Task: structure prediction
Amino acid sequence: MDEPRGTEALVSTAVRDLPTGSFAFVMATGIVSTAFSIVGWAVPSLILLIIAVGALVILAIISVWRFAAYRAEVLLDARNPARAFGFFTMVAAINVVGIRMYSPQAPTATVVLAVLSVPLWLLFTYGLPGNLMLRPLAGPVATKVDGSWFLWVVGTQSVATAAAIIGAGVRSHALAAVAVALWGIGVLLYLMLATLVTLRLLTVPSKPNSFTPSYWIYMGATAITVLAGSRILLLPQDLPIMAATAGVVSGLTYILWAFGAWWVPLLVLFGLWRHVIHREPARYEAGLWSIVFPLGMYSVASMHFGTVARLPLLVGIGEAGTWIAGIAWLVVAAAMVYAGCARLLGRGGRAANDRAARG
Result:
């Protein structure tokens, strides 16, 4: 009877301690699948899509279970500045999978997933910042801001991208206007958060464990903004909203693409400073998917925007980046499997020792 109880305890602990950013795995897998699809690798793309859909369903079930059984822990996460914005990975994951599944002949899956993401986006975009702003004072929130806050931008731009794709298919004036509005909100959120995060980096003493992989979302947020912008530029040009904003969207999209590229060497430098100079051990953590996702998203965004803007250099960069993102996915997936097996074997060994001691 000890074994079932041990297994049940392991599952309950995993559900209770589920990271708020766990859907980053779906985001990373879905966007790498999209990148492979664009460059013509149909089989790896399909395999990754199946993995992404399966993981999305499983994580959605676990998240509902966690909210029902461990609501206090969920609310604590929502009040924690270092964890709260991880909830936006739910919104982004839903739309990344929906965007990958889009077909002009069969857009139903994309539409359904986009509709499901909107209530979550509304809840998180107002509930999480509002909760942090109105909570009882326990020290300044600004000192705890980190790269995970850019998930607010990522979630917003994922909805903008889905709206633009669906709007282009049905020539909807309303969806086109919503897509441009959300894209603009995402751009302003990015500028606001980039200011906060950069000020923290410049004013708060740096520690090796503070430079987590979440800072790669700094670049990932620009990448998905570029993707959203390129999708908006594919909207019918005779729509009134396009006549009013196409030039602005095109110019800012290119600037943000360049800014995202500028960030890559600095982010690599952060990692070298942490792991090489300060010898912080490199081990698997869920946040590593926050590196894979920006790499995949930047590749997809570069190929889309390069095609729309007729900039072959960007297309070439995106194609090369696809292989880097694919290798990164394989490395992090292998590390995740290894860490999971080691954890299970470690728990199993401890359980066996405990039974032997009792026997």
Observations:
- The chain is about 80% helix and 0% strand.
